[in-house]
Amino acid sequence: MVRLLDRWMPLKHVSASPIHKQRHEPTIMSGEVTPDPSQRQVMVNLGNRTVLFGPSAALRHVSHFAPEDDAQVLPPVADEREVAEERIARTLRVSEFESIRPASEGPGFDIEAIDRSGRKILIDIKVRERDPKPRDFDDQYRRLQTMSSSQDGAVAEAWHFNIERLKLVIMSLDKGGMPAFSTLVPLDVWQRTDKEIFRRQQVVERVEDWVRRIDQLYSDIQSWLVSHHDLKTERTRKTLMSEELMQKYAVPDRELPILDILRGNESLLSFVPRALYIIGARGRIDIISTSGTRLLIDQGVSGKPDWRLVSAESRRETSAFDQAALNVLVVQQ
After folding, report:
1. Is 41 within 8 Å of 70 (Cβ atoms)?
2. Tens of pLDDT along 9-62?
3. Is the pTM value of this prediction over 0.90?
4. CA quadruple 95, 84, 136, 99: dihedral positive or negative?
5. In angstroms, rounded to a whole number, what is the distance separating the alpha carbons of residues 23 and 20?
6. Cα separation, 121 vs 113, whole angstroms
7. Are 94 and 112 in contact (CB under 8 A)?
8. Which of 182, 157, 179 minimizes the C-alpha distance to 53?
9. Nearest Cα to 188, choosing from 64, 37, 39?
10. Rounded mean pLDDT, 58-86
11. What is the 3-state secondary structure (H, E, C) of the chain?
12. pLDDT (0 to 100) of residue 57
């Protein structure tokens, strides 16, 4: 995976960009309290992906934005960091904001927004591959203090985008002038093309299907070993599933069980899920023993598994993995 330079990347100003009009509920009347940053929803393109950030995904919420609101089809890029700055300015949409445009005043600011109470918000946007460190916040705090005091009625904020692990941290000042932080997490992620919209939910469903297929395979193996009275199985050990596509679409890491076949306290075979997204198959499991490792892949279609044992001599050759094949593996140990 291409990694970003370990530095802040200030957003480039975009000239002659129209004001983004927001589609929201009726405008809040002057004098009402503006919702705090932690309750916002932010839709923005970060390269090839459009991300909807918002409050904790574990909480119930009504989405203000959806793929249908993301009308722009942007050309795909090989390195998302090269275009992240410019595409943030072009695609940024925020609930509770009436308008968004490139900042016309205030050195160091990138975005000028008007919220639904009519208040101006000046935003300094930072793009990075990881979460900011305390020293980064210290420098930003001093800048927000200076900018807020120099702008008539305007509010200054710093938005920190982690584009690798998908997180948005908004730093602002509270009524006492002290730093306040709001973390927004991905509520949805999608990639839009002329032909289709690929959504986070499709990755979630693929992972769930992988979990079900592994569970069914383990159940089959355990049933095939019933006649082997000297053997037992365990599913107590775990391996962590954290694949690139899961990270790109904000799908949480998943613990998967390892199936151990034991004779007494001695492990004969261990079935370890290795990868879901592989070329030419719908998942791979490693069968590990003291004599080596064999590969087990699912080449099924239409949702029906077809587990195949890869030849130890040639990875291009496979054979059906069934009770007879398992017995051969057991005998070889």
Report:
1. no
2. 444 433 333 444 444 433 333 333 345 799 999 999 998 999 999 998 666 778
3. no
4. negative
5. 10
6. 5
7. no
8. 182
9. 64
10. 83
11. CCCCCCCCEECCCCCCCCCEECCCCCCCCCCCCCCCHHHCCEEEECCCCEEEEECCCCCCCCCCCCHHHCCCCCCCCCCCHHHHHHHHHHHCEECCEEEEEECCCCCCCCEEEEECCCCEEEEEEEEECCCCCHHHHHHHHHHHHHHHHHCCCCEEEEEEEECCCCEEEEEEECCCCCEEEEEEEEEEEEEECCCCEEEHHHHHHHHHHHHHHHHHHHHHHHHHCCCCCCCEEECCCEEEECCHHHHHCCCCCEEEECEEEEECCEEEEEEEEEECCECCECCEEEEEECCEEEEEEECCCCCCCCEEEECCCCCCCEEECCHHHHHHHHHCC
12. 66
Distance of alpha carbon 95 from its chain centroid, rounded?
21
Phi then psi for residue 273, to 5 deg, are -60, 125
From the CB of residue 119, how many other CB atoms can be counted at a distance below 10 Å? 14
Residue 126 has pLDDT above 70, yes or no: yes
- Whether residue 217 is predicted with pLDDT greater than 90 in this model: the reply is yes
Q: What is the pLDDT of residues 159-208, one digit of tens each?
A: 999 988 899 999 998 888 899 999 999 999 999 988 899 999 999 999 99
Does residue 170 contact residue 182 with C-beta atoms inside 8 Å?
yes
For tokens 């064999």, name the residue.
Answer: 294
Whether 278 shows a pLDDT value over 70: the answer reads yes
The answer to whether the beta carbons of residues 135 and 101 sit under 8 Å apart is no
